[in-house]
């Protein structure tokens, strides 16, 4: 079964457009089974602002106290997951919204409780559960919230969650759907980047902000055996006539195909 993990970033949820859905349909007609993970950073920011709560990020990760975790869950499970499932349903896709914290879907551990609070990294994925949904003909739409051993819900960066799921499913591809066409260097879209090139572009600041967890996740996924990891646009066709459009990230020099 050819699975493709697609992470839909919060930046693009309001802007997913017809070309994206047409590509998704074509992909499925070509025998790929999508598993979707979503973000929701901008919606969480707005809700925290609404409640006059302070926001703080360290290394691109939201510092998440207990109260913030409640808001994160409310927004990701109650708002952005619903929004994306609604859009996809309207477009004719059979979807099933899943909370990462239900039925040990995403088991997680604290990254650094002292520094970041309730922020986690995935330690185990309930692949049986996800594949049961896929094999029943539905697209899982997974909220990036994990469950810790102590029963706490943990906030997981959507890009990292997607890479972990792709690794666990031995997915053929992990695609990060965002609000740009791919990785831009000096204003131009780059179609392929090696790990070494990425390292250089990270250190000279050409890759920054929200693109950093994406390239790190893409590298982690390919290093763990996912054949291809890509940054793609949610506003343009990303797949047509068996060709993918965006930036392919390769784990090692010479691995680009
Ligand atoms: N080299 C780069 N090429 C393209 N986008 C980049 C680059 N470096 C940083 N970015 C930024 O990364 C953003 C995507 O990350 P983010 O806003 O976190 O998206 P998402 O919500 O989809 O995860 C782009 O809108 C852009 O501002
Ligand atoms: C720990 C951490 O930072 N979690 C993210 C989860 C949402 C996310 O990843 O959303 P985007 O894909 O839109 O960035 C957050 O709280 O914003």
From TrEMBL:
Its EC number is 2.7.2.8. One of its GO terms (molecular function) is ATP binding. The keyword Amino-acid biosynthesis applies. Substrate binds at residues 40-41, 62, 155. One of its GO terms (biological process) is L-arginine biosynthetic process via ornithine. Pathway: Amino-acid biosynthesis; L-arginine biosynthesis; N(2)-acetyl-L-ornithine from L-glutamate: step 2/4. Gene3D superfamilies: Acetylglutamate kinase-like (3.40.1160.10). It catalyses: N-acetyl-L-glutamate + ATP = N-acetyl-L-glutamyl 5-phosphate + ADP. Keywords: Amino-acid biosynthesis, Arginine biosynthesis, ATP-binding, Cytoplasm, Kinase, Nucleotide-binding, Transferase. Its main location: cytoplasm. Residues 2-233 form the Aspartate/glutamate/uridylate kinase domain. It is found in: Cytoplasm. It holds the Pfam family AA_kinase. Signal peptide: none annotated. InterPro entries: AceGlu_kinase-like_sf (IPR036393), AcgluKinase_fam (IPR004662), ArgB (IPR037528), Asp/Glu/Uridylate_kinase (IPR001048). GO terms for cellular component: cytoplasm. The keyword Transmembrane helix does not apply. It comes from the Bacteria. It is an enzyme of class 2 (transferase). The record marks 7, 214 as: Transition state stabilizer. Coiled coil: none annotated. Belongs to the acetylglutamate kinase family. ArgB subfamily. HAMAP family: ArgB (MF_00082). Catalyzes the ATP-dependent phosphorylation of N-acetyl-L-glutamate. This is Acetylglutamate kinase. The gene is argB.
């Amino acid at each position: 079964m050819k699975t493709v993990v697609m992470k839909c970033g919060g930046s693009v949820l309001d802007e997913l457009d017809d070309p994206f859905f047409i590509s998704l349909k074509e992909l499925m007609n070509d025998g790929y089974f999508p598993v979707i993970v979503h973000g929701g950073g901008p919606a969480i920011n707005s809700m925290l602002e609404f409640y006059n709560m302070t926001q703080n990020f360290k290394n691109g990760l939201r510092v998440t106290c207990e109260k913030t975790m409640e808001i994160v869950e409310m927004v990701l499970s109650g708002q952005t997951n619903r929004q994306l499932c609604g859009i996809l349903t309207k477009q004719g896709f059979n979807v099933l919204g899943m909370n990462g914290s239900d039925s040990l879907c995403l088991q997680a551990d604290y990254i650094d409780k002292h520094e970041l609070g309730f922020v986690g990294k995935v330690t185990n994925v309930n692949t049986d559960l996800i594949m049961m949904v896929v094999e029943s003909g539905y697209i899982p739409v997974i909220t990036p919230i994990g469950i810790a051993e102590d029963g706490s819900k943990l906030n997981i960066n959507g890009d990292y969650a997607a890479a972990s799921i792709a690794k666990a499913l031995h997915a053929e591809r992990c695609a990060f759907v965002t609000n740009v066409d791919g990785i831009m260097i000096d204003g131009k879209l780059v179609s392929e980047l090696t790990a070494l090139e990425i390292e250089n572009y990270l250190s000279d600041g050409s890759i920054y902000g929200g693109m950093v967890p994406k390239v790190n996740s893409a590298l982690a996924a390919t290093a763990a055996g996912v054949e291809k990891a890509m940054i793609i646009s949610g506003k343009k066709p990303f797949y047509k006539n068996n060709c993918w459009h965006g930036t392919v990230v390769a784990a090692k020099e010479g691995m680009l195909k």
